[in-house]
Design a protein that fits this description.
The chain has about 190 residues and is of the alpha+beta class. Helices cover about 20% and strands about 30% of the residues. This is UPF0301 protein B0I00_2212.
Amino acid sequence: MTDAAFLTGCLLLAMPGMGDPRFDHAVIAMIRHDADGALGLGVGQAVPGVTLHSILADLKIDPGEAPDDPVLLGGPVETERGFVLHSSDWRSEATIDAGPLGAMTMSREVLAAIAAGVGPRRFVVVLGYAGWDAGQLDAEMRRHGWYAAQGRPEIVFDVPTEDRWRQAWLADGIDPALLASQTGRA
């Protein structure tokens, strides 16, 4: 098994040519990785036509001070379920630590706090998640699938969504233009 302490809080980057179009240029913020499996939130693609204000309206929460940011596609699993990846300056009983990336909360409470101007200072809202069964992610990483980049909150919170994949590679000292879309065998 890959070192779970390393993967929790890292940014998983889809390798070119990984073979699954759902994860083309994916940037996955890893929330958990242990013997039972893995959970991550996609932070590299917006859901077309969905914004924070539309989510708040659906939940009957006055948007108040909340910016009308795009909502991101967290992954192919349970795309109707919402999650907030945020800075560690706000917590509730439903908050889970996400290593260097901050924390994750999946309750209505965090959205109400954001709207009231008392929520986390930095956040992204996502619908859905990426999940792996026990050992599944480890196997994918042994093949030509994923690269575990250092978990840098500035990539998630400060870089425009469409630039996160490229900027995460560059932050690790790798020019993504030079990546091969196929692997060889020795």
